[in-house]
Structures
1.
Amino acid sequence: MVSPEHFTGEVQIPVIDIRPTNSDAPRQLLQAAAGYGFVFIEPWETGIKQEDVDQMFELSKEFFASPIDVKEEVSISSNKAGKNYGWLSQGVEKLDPMTQKRPDVKEAFNVGEPVGGELQQPLPKPLRPHEQTIIDFQRKCHRLCQRVLQVFAIALGINERWFTDRHDEARGPSGTMFRLLYYPQIDTIEDGVDIRAGAHSDYGSITLLFQQRGGHPGLEIKTPSGEWAPVPVDPVQHPVGSFNGGIPKEQPLPILVNIGDLLEDWTAGLLKSTVHRVIFPEASGGDRYSIAYFCHPLDDALLEPVPSKLVEDHALKSGRKLARDGKLITAKDHLMARLAATYTVK
Ligand SMILES: O=C(O)CCC(=O)C(=O)O
Ligand SMILES: [Fe+2]
């Protein structure tokens, strides 16, 4: 792997097989997380099938193509949807409020965690018949997050369940959020002004990001030298139309995982929550769809330092502390502060 100090605008985000059969997975994952903070996970045995992802994109497209009144019904600013859940029209979110002149050119639909097998918010008409499909997908995402967190714990030499216990849905609520994203193509893009998602880092512990097979790119990460580097939709570049014994190969895409602020804080900066954004790519015009699963610790999880020798050593070097006014903060305190800075919900 190229050392992060020597970026030239091109980054090679590693693709890692995290199945238990890969005994080197913890080391590889830690190295990637401490370097770029972004990593592709081989889809094999993750529990998430390509057809699950394809189906979610179909549902997403159907929803965003619905008439405005269908979307308004579940608007994030309506009382019905509940805080932070529901549809965000264009103009609601500005992920980089210090620099952006205009809000992100996107729409989103936020879905909170199901409780007792049911979503805690109304679904829009086109999605209503598919509630179970959505819940199943959320579950699969959560399971994959837990596996990734378990591999991190192994890599850090702590109890395998240190992170997963603190993300155990059965123990209480969390800020975990499932999000459908739609970035429409617009006719005139003002250079340096219009952006699909402003520069930001994610708030939670880890994020799963699903990009669409054959879809438009646009995601970029900020390298340590301050340059923007594109993240591919398909890092393996599966040949289109390759055949396997006469049967066309439908290769599943690796799943992009990135570290969020909470995991960075928890590890005193050893794992990196890298700043990223979504642009209108010059070479590839068209609507972009993506699906994100933002995994958060339980609301009342204290952001105390992870009891790992590697983290301790890093904390000594970086001088980072987790206390605020001498008091440890919870995952919820952290999330509330971030949301307040980036949303304009009227
Ligand atoms: O759509 C994407 O590719 C990235 C979205 C993202 O970074 C976010 O919503 O936090
Ligand atoms: Fe993000």
Note: The chain is about 25% helix and 20% strand.
2.
Amino acid sequence: MEPLEGSNGREAVLSVRGLTVGFGDKLVLDNLDLDVYRGEILGFVGASGAGKSVLMRTVLRLLPRRSGQIHILGADYDAVSAEERSNLDTRLGVLFQHGALFSALTVKENIQLPMREYLKLPKVLMDELAYLKIQMVGLPADAGDKYPSELSGGMIKRAALARALALDPDLVFLDEPTSGLDPIGAAEFDDLIARLRDTLGLTVYMVTHDLDSLFSVCDRIAVLGQKRVLVEGPLTDMLACDDAWVKSYFRGKRARSIPKHQDTTRGSSANARTSD
Ligand SMILES: Nc1ncnc2c1ncn2[C@@H]1O[C@H](COP(=O)(O)OP(=O)(O)OP(=O)(O)O)[C@@H](O)[C@H]1O
């Protein structure tokens, strides 16, 4: 499988072309194009109901599409063999909204689920790997034996992230990872994402409504509107965009309350976070 090169010479780990998705008479995505490049954190935004979750679920093959091509790590999902498709699946990690851990399983068992599905490893090795992931996301070692109901919201997000990282993916999808966290917890989570990207070379596709995350850790932002990607680029492009929704989103009252957002450096998002 050859990696796809975008028009800017960067490797696109996810490339979507002409994607159309609908339900009955309702068209949600119409001829949508999108590239996500290796090593970047892409923030994906759009009005509520615009189709952000539908796009993510379609890319993950959880929803059918009417037309369009999806390439992951250079491979056309539709054209590869079942075995190659399964290999590709191991290179994607997903953190669904609200964590979505299995409540009857401990954190360790949740993290080991993808390992059980895709790898055949002795138990002792799976335990070691699970504790490595637990450490990686900043949870204490004893969190492994806890059930989701015994964890705080922030710990659940971290545990879900550890599960998303279970198979050492190239690309992780995060669906509103900071929703429900207090500003400090959200800032710490953003810092964790940035650190993992820097240390593991992860590529991150992050659906978010969180302006602080967009301002502090995202390298590029894509805006979903009118059933397609309306505008994509760095924050400066969003601030210069004349579309009414983009303008009110990035230059509205809440956005203006974020101090010095253009100068905010990675790893210091806690300092820049709004408190509302
Ligand atoms: N399985 C489905 N069957 C029918 N309609 C659906 C289905 N899934 C989503 N939709 C519709 O598709 C549209 C886009 O939904 P989606 O959940 O992707 O929005 P979103 O941008 O993620 O919104 P939010 O930011 O509120 O989470 C909505 O009108 C929704 O009702």
Note: The first helix runs from residue 52 to 59.
